[in-house]
């Protein structure tokens, strides 16, 4: 099996696990993520607009004291940019169906809350396969320190995510039951 085939199979299994966790819990309390984000007071933050069965990080984003952005896909093979978001922002559909603010300044985050399909305790995540977050994290980290936080259901943990050299590690993973510091 090629790495692409291994990742495709892992994505299929991960989607099923996340869907089951979402159905059983409907949503998870984001208070642990809110608590973690308090340590980054006033720091530019980017989260995501939850789709399908992704864990909802909006309450934690709304409680953040600094500027908050959400991802905007500029095109295939490009890094994400982040448009300023507030709870009352007018949203329009962006690429892949994610909602984005209709207007707003760009935010360069120092903390990035990342959606995922699966994660492992080494800090690797399995995403949707477009490489958007890996390219984005690589670019942001080249300009300065950035903390990448995966937000997931505990049921999304796997023993080992299949990786390749371009995959960027998470600095922290927050589930409904714990905050995991990879390598600690």
CATH level 3 topology: Rossmann fold
The average pLDDT is 91
**CATH hierarchy: architecture:** 3-Layer(aba) Sandwich
**Spatial order of the strands forming the largest sheet:** 3-2-1-6-9-10-11
SSE sequence, one letter per element: HHEHEEEEEEEHEEE
Quick one: overall form? Answer: globular
Q: Provide the domain count.
A: 1
Please tally the helical runs, counting DSSP H or I stretches of 4 or more residues. 4
* Beta fraction: 15-25%
Largest sheet: 7 strands, mixed
Uncertain segments: none
| Quaternary structure type | single chain
User: Regarding CATH, which class?
Assistant: Alpha Beta
Radius of gyration equals 15 Å
Helix content: 25-40%
Structural class by sheet pairing and helices: alpha/beta
Offer a concise description of the structure.
The protein has 184 residues and is of the alpha/beta class. 26% of the residues lie in helices and 19% in strands.
């Amino acid at each position: 099996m090629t790495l692409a085939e291994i990742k495709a199979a892992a994505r299929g299994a991960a989607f099923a696990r996340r869907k089951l966790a979402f159905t059983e819990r409907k949503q998870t309390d984001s208070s642990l993520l809110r608590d973690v984000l308090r340590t980054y007071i006033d720091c530019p933050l980017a989260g995501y607009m939850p789709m399908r069965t992704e864990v909802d990080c909006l309450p934690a984003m709304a409680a953040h004291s600094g500027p908050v952005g959400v991802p905007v896909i500029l095109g295939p093979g490009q890094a994400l940019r982040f448009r300023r978001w507030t709870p009352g922002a007018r949203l329009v559909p962006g690429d892949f169906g994610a909602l984005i603010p209709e207007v707003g300044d760009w935010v360069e985050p120092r903390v990035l809350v990342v959606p995922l399909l699966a994660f492992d305790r080494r800090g690797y995540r399995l995403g949707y396969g477009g490489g958007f977050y890996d390219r984005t994290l690589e670019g942001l980290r080249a300009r300065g320190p950035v903390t990448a936080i995966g937000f997931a259901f505990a049921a999304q943990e796997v023993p080992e995510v299949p990786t390749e050299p371009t995959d960027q590690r998470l600095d922290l993973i927050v589930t409904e039951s714990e905050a995991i510091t990879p390598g600690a």
